[in-house]
Design brief:
By secondary structure, the protein is mainly alpha-helical. The chain contains four helices and no strands. Helix content is 69%, strand content 0%.
Length: 89
């Protein structure tokens, strides 16, 4: 999760967004996130399926990085993967 501060130059916009979000029982942060997702989609941004694929790839990379932590990086990637597979067996 990333934290961002949004400064509204027009106080009325914030009041309207807050009131509409409250009508739906949603926090303003969710409404802002939805608006940003819609904006990205309108600009040809990353599709939901691409976003999920990227998330899974980054998760796999993080797991691999954790498993490789402390290993001699002189090993080839294949040697490191083989060693990990052997440890799992």
């Amino acid at each position: 999760m990333r934290r961002v501060t949004v400064l509204f130059d027009d106080e009325q916009i914030y009041r309207e967004v807050k009131a509409e979000a409250a009508k739906e029982g949603r926090p303003v942060k969710d409404v802002v996130a939805e608006a940003l997702k819609d904006w990205l989609r309108s600009r040809g941004g990353i599709s939901e399926s691409d976003r999920e694929r990227r998330r899974l790839a980054l998760e796999a990379a993080d797991k691999l990085r954790a498993e490789l932590a402390g290993r001699d990086m002189g090993e080839t990637i294949q040697d490191a993967l083989d060693a990990i597979r052997g440890e799992r067996a």
